[in-house]
Design goal:
The protein has seven helices and no strands. By secondary structure, it is mostly helical.
Length: about 190
């Protein structure tokens, strides 16, 4: 007889945020070396629990959505931060702990709100979609005799335009009538494939 699969407990977001705030709050005091080591261990533990939960949650979201791409990117960044060995000096250890704390905060944001996007989330998501498309697309990999991308792929062109728009940010509506013709968006062929 096999046991039923164990249900996971929801993340203790309040405890995670409280730990991160000990290092990131505006009025945060510099911890003693002993307290810092305890904080680092606690942050690492929080990340080890949060990473698989946030990743599993995000993978259920729409594949082409910015929140999913941003959450998956933040999970990867948190994993990288966990793998880093901090320096021995107190300032280096504090900086390391603050990076772990920022990862905790952003993972909590993604876990709590399905629509959360990091400030550079749309740009990052558009860039990652380009990077996923170009290597797999024969048309995007086609180059002319000079090694320049031919830009014959409509999907690659659309992804590049989305990336450029995300870098510019959302369009701002001006009040009142415009004087003169509207400037058409600039079109370029996508960057050469990696």
């Amino acid at each position: 007889m096999t046991a039923p699969p164990a249900k996971t407990q929801p993340l203790d977001i309040d405890a995670m945020r409280a730990t991160a705030d000990r290092l990131l709050a505006e009025d945060a005091e510099v911890p003693s070396p002993e307290d810092l080591e305890t904080l680092i261990l606690r942050l690492r533990g929080h990340l080890m629990v949060a990473i698989p939960e946030v990743e599993t949650t995000a993978l259920a979201w729409s594949e082409d959505g910015v929140p999913r791409t941003c959450a998956i990117f933040c999970v990867g960044e948190a994993r990288l931060r966990l793998s880093v060995e901090p320096g021995r000096a107190l300032p280096a250890r504090i900086a390391h702990a603050q990076r772990l704390a920022r990862s905790i905060r952003v993972l909590c944001d993604h876990y709590e709100r399905r629509d959360h996007q990091c400030p550079r989330g749309p740009e990052r998501a558009a860039y990652l979609r380009m990077l996923e498309h170009y290597p797999e697309c024969p048309a995007c990999r086609t180059v002319d005799d000079n090694g320049e991308g031919t830009g014959l792929c409509a999907t690659g062109g659309r992804l590049y335009d989305e990336y450029r728009q995300a870098r510019r940010g959302p369009a701002v509506q001006e009040a009142g009538p415009k004087s003169g013709p509207a400037n058409p968006p600039e079109h370029r062929s996508p960057p050469p494939p990696p």
